[in-house]
Amino acid sequence: MLISLIATKQMAEQIKKALADAGDVVFEHVGKLDSESVKEIFYSASRVSADVLIVDLDVFSGKEIVSALQGFRIARPNTRIIVIAPDRKPGDEIISSIVGLGIYDIAAEGKESNWSEIIKNILLSPPATYAQAARWHTGQLLNASIQTKERVIIEERPAGIVTVAVSATAHGIGCTYTALSVASFLSRLGHSAAVIEDSQKPVFSFLCSVLKAKEGKVEGSYTVHGIDIFPVDKSGDNGNWNYDMLLKKIKEGQYEYVVRDLGVLNSPRRREMYGADIAFVVASAAKWRWHEVIERIDGDFDIIFPLASQNNVEEISFYAGIKGTALSYCPNPFAEENDSVFLKLLAPVLPSRRKKRILFGVF
Q1: pLDDT tens for each residue of 165-215
Q2: What is the DSSP string of 162-202?
Q3: In 10 A of CB 343, how many CB atoms?
Q4: Where are the strands (E) in 157-308, listed by range?
Q5: pLDDT digits (tens, 9 = 90+) for 304-322
């Protein structure tokens, strides 16, 4: 479980005790916040893909927490939010407004309580419902009489889990490298991404061993540079696609994007490519390997040429009529060097932003 944490120093220490066996902190702010820094911290938190956001109300001195949480929910609608409200009582105006946002996990025990145990129990329990939080909700919202217009960014996101398929014209071209690079790029954008191995020559188990990867969000996955990867389970190999066998776990992990490393392109893998939301074929731009591209690719998929220059791509386009995108040399698939390239390639399946006027504090 990946946790984002905004809390006072004392509360943060207790929460981390509860997280020792429950999850990893991927974003953390410890200490008081003034009204000017609240939005900045919550914006930073929204850029990180986490399963749970834990917020200690003692960090905030004013009412700005409500609009900050509203903005966070817009950016991260699937992140569970747990609000710690020591010594607060029903009728509290701020908590009433928070419940009005659809946030129902409210912990309001006394300040001297065992918060480590309290948070641990909440994390191990299903998300709270409105029935459990109704006692906090008066139906009134902060500043309800003041209709303040504010321009915010709304993201139109693809529905469901987006599948990105990556295959190659031959072994050793860079299929696995490209799949990991795509997932790493998506993770840097703040999305929850996983890579599933379905290639003819599995290497993910070795990669996890070399990188000493920790266990991922769900059983059978490993976390590598902010993404979860699923190696082929050879012990349970029955001829099925690893992706098909992992569908339940993919849903459990609440991944926004799943990248499939399909290995060398053939008829079965071509069918899997057509079933993806977007698919790429990795090929060599070297002249002595042009035949692999001509023989294997029918123009239905975008082509990526690793270790190629723009001149290489233009040359193969001129002589063979094959268009593709150059991926410049970068030995580390988790680096940022080719982010601008992936931004263009993945544009059809990335959230599109539009500006819209909304009324904060008015529902």
Answers
A1: 999 999 999 999 999 999 999 988 888 899 999 998 889 989 888 888 888
A2: EEEEEEESSTTSSHHHHHHHHHHHHHHTT--EEEEE--SS-
A3: 12
A4: 162-168, 193-197, 214-215, 222-224, 227-230, 257-264, 278-282, 302-306
A5: 998 888 888 888 878 777 7
Q: How far apart are CA 206 and CA 187, in angstroms?
A: 22
For residues 328 and 306, the answer to whether their CB atoms sit within 8 Å is no
In CATH, 162-350 is 3.40.50.300: yes
* Common-topology check for domains 2-142 and 162-350: yes
**In the CATH scheme, what architecture does the domain 2-142 have?**
3-Layer(aba) Sandwich (3.40)
Record the pTM.
0.56
Q: Which of 82, 88, 123 is nearest to 105 (CA)?
A: 82
Q: Are 185 and 342 in contact, with CB atoms under 8 Å apart?
A: yes
Task: Please give the structure tokens belonging to residue 232.
Answer: 């082929």
Whole-angstrom distance between the N-terminal and C-terminal Cα of the chain?
32
Domain boundaries, the chain: 2-142, 162-350
